[in-house]
Amino acid sequence: MNSVIIFLIVTGLILFLATTVGLLRFPDFYSRMHAAGKGDTLSSLLMLGGLALYEFHEINVATLLVGAKILLIAVFIFMASPTATHAITDAGYESGVKPWQKEKTASEDEG
Amino acid sequence: MIWQIDLSVLSLIVLCGFATIMVKDLLSAAIIFGAYSFLMCLLWTEMGAVDVAFTEASVGAGVSTILFIAAAYQTTRIVKPRKSGRIFAKIVALAASVAMGLVLLAAQTNFPGFADPESPASLHLSPYYITQTLADTAVPNMVTSVLADYRGFDTMFETAVIFTAGLAVIAILRRVKHIDRCELPDPYTISAGSQDNIIRFVSRQLVPFMQLFALYVVAHGHHSPGGGFQGGVILGASFILLAITYDIQLVQQRMNEKWNILLGNIGVLIYASIGFICLLLGANFLDYSMLSKILPATDPVMARSHGMLGIEIGVAIAVMAIVVTIYLNLASNGKLDKGL
Questions:
Q1: Predicted model pTM
Q2: Which residue of A has its CA nearest to B190?
Q3: How far is CA B21 from its chain centroid?
Q4: DSSP per residue over B239-252, as a string?
Q5: Is A37 contained in some domain?
Q6: Chains A & B: contacts with CB separation below 8 Å
Q7: What does the pLDDT look like over B154-205, one tens digit per residue?
Q8: In a domain, A103, yes or no
């Protein structure tokens, strides 16, 4: 049980780190949003899952309630976070942010 | 309290504060200010003030960021560099603020030390609230009971302030006839959202849950962090989400301007009339214990709990209506036809 929790939370943290690195290092707006949307959602889900499992250590009404609330938060993050990323990316596309292309327009990669 | 977390969050807060002032792009400034509010919320959670953190998260990081963005959408995005002049006025202003600071510093020596356990507030007031709240009011969350019962006047006038803010926004911005004299031609406007199916579908699915959660926050404020202000702001935010993802017309169909203003009035009236009912029953204004005479099967202690629930509902209704009104007027430049 404990090892599963530790595995979930540590994986979430590592993916958060990967998200941050991606956000800083990727060349253009769209790939940065890709890193932010995917990594953020998955790592939040993993960490919230770990925390919910931690709550289920001893089963009674109080811990079940807290665990269920955490899982509900996970469900809403799972719905809202990719949608928010999609909305930002869509707004960027609408306002004409150019995607990054290799070699050709590497100088104007900033949105 | 873990001082490493406190220190890192605090330094980030200071950084965000400076960045908000320095950034020339108002949209970026609004977003950085949202991050600032969210960091404040983290700090307050860390210090154990969960109710305040909840308010900061919903009002500061949520709705006020949207209001700033709506205001920038209708005006301009870039701060124009001001001509350096009026040296004399600047010197006077600097001297006045330094003098004011010196006066405050001089007055500060008369206060008890920061977090002094011997100060009157820590000796008499806080222990009373901590030990007697449950016996007095049957409300486990003492923040709610202090806010809504012991200091009910404070909260009533806070609600009145929000109501007045809504009235001011209507008075300044609302234009019934379309007189387009103050349109600003501006190349740096924020583009309005696109008509995207994914965003619309997901927000349509989320709005009922948001409203349900808001009702839970209002009704459960006695037992957990939350209450009228937070619940009302979340309710208002659900309408703002609809207005952003669809358009203002949809919100107008669901809850038009007349209803909004009426609900704002009703909310403040609920609060004040509960106070007046106490007065009519022979107690002081907002002394809910006397409500046990008219509420069936309640003793004076439970009556205080029920009275708090009543005024929380009033606060929630007023805050919801006013937040929606302010957003709609800001985003559509007072015309309520289309906007952000």
A1: 0.85
A2: A95
A3: 22
A4: HHHHHHHS-HHHHH
A5: yes
A6: 26
A7: 999 999 999 999 999 999 988 776 555 555 544 455 555 556 788 888 888 9
A8: no
